Design the sequence.
């Protein structure tokens, strides 16, 4: 599932949710919602 992959990859790279959000141009809250499975990103 996307959320599991995102969390695993983020922790492997030792990134915070803020780091991920900044790199892809979204808010930290968006990343948190993706990781919780509440929403998924629009591709």
Sequence:
């Amino acid at each position: 599932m996307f959320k599991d992959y995102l969390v695993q990859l983020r922790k492997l790279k030792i990134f915070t949710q803020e780091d991920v959000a900044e790199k892809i141009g979204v808010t930290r809250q968006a990343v948190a919602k993706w990781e919780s499975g509440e929403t998924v990103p629009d591709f």
User: Anything to note?
Assistant: The chain has three helices and no strands. The first helix runs from residue 2 to 12.
